[in-house]
Amino acid sequence: MDNRAIRPSLRLSAALLLVGQLLYIIITQFHADGEANNHPAVFAEYARSGSWKAVHVGQFAGMAILLAGLLALFFALDTQDRTARWAGRFGAAAAVAALALYGALQAVDGVANKEADDAWVSAPATEKTARFASAEAIRWIEWGMRSYHNFALGLALLLFAAAVVRTAWVPQPIAYLIGLSGLTYLVQGWVVGAEGFSRTNSIAIVVAWVLDVVWMIWLVVVAWRMQDLEPRPLADEGWGRPGTIHPSSR
Questions:
Q1: Is residue 245 part of a domain?
Q2: Contact (Cβ atoms closer than 8 angstroms) between residue 219 and residue 17
Q3: What is the pTM of this model?
Q4: Rounded to an integer, what is the distance from CA 71 to the centroid of its chain?
Q5: How many angstroms separate the CA atoms of 189 and 202, rounded?
Q6: Which domain holds residue 9?
Q7: Is 199 part of any domain?
Q8: N or C terminus: which one in the chain shows less Cβ crowding within 10 Å?
Q9: Please, which pLDDT band fits residue 5 given cuts at 50, 70 and 90?
Q10: In this predicted structure, what is the pLDDT of residue 79?
Q11: Domain assignment present for 242
């Protein structure tokens, strides 16, 4: 295997993954805080936020960079193992679906949610009940979008883990960490769909972030430490030495 062809793709993938994840985590710290399932209180907090839409654009950018890193990893693996190749293909398809779902999610959360909350806060008393109902409806749509985005991202990570574990030049523990991260996203998808933004979901988010940062940093180290391994020249197998007859000349 010629690592000179693999190394640039792997470095690009590792860099995109880590930058995207760190950017997402940092920007999320500016997200308006509050008890997410206490709708009257949290909707009022969202309405007061002056950076709501900008934060969600930043989150989308971070997630897009991260998922671009997963797609780059598909090309970096370029494995000859049939199972790993198909796992990578389906993983790449799931990553594309995750990006589409996340774009729709941020449109609902970053735009529609904010507008509905602003309208509820500023509505006259006679309209507040109806405005609050519409804001809750948008919130529940957000739950559904986030749930299925997490399912798609978790599936993508599990499929990439299956591909990486069969790739000889990537340490297998990286694949196991990717798989564990994928499972935490599946848990998030189920919890959000059942409970909304509960404490259980918050714990799963933090666990996923820790796992992601660990395996992404490890992948960066592997990519930058990878040495050039060129295919051995034909002479190394004995062909071309004095007195050696090449098979083609027989």
A1: no
A2: yes
A3: 0.86
A4: 10
A5: 12
A6: 3-230
A7: yes
A8: C
A9: low
A10: 66
A11: no
